[in-house]
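Let us practice reading a record.
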Amino acid sequence: MSSITFLASSRPFTIPDEIQEYYNKTTLEKGHQHISLWVRELDSLGWEEFAEDLFSMTYIYEIIGADSSLFLIYLEKYMEIGDVLELLYIPNQNDYKYYKRELVEAPEPIYINVRSLTYQDGNGTYKLDPKKWVEELSHRNFITEFGVTTIEKY
């Protein structure tokens, strides 16, 4: 079975029309490789039991494209003050019990604040450049199976 990435949000998560239009325009007109960003609610997938103890946010989704430039555009342009997102990547859906056990026993969380432009992991806290923080973040590991990534804007 394939991988799955979860997105938990402090408010209902929707992909803005501008991002969808940008995706359609760049893919069709310029022939770039296929980049997509979409979410669907978790309740229809049967993953509620797995996710219930791992996230602190109310709204939980499956997300495709959380590692894409479109998701980074969302963070840059559409996160509002007070928004919190949580991401978790499971490389193999068949081994979800193993990944949950590892997450509970030895979590390695990542914290990103898109207002103060900080990135924190087990190695330390790093300040992101205000002029190119989206590019810097695109080169950092922010989606992992080793811990929940919390992205906030405070």
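A brief commentary: The first strand starts at residue 4 and ends at 9.
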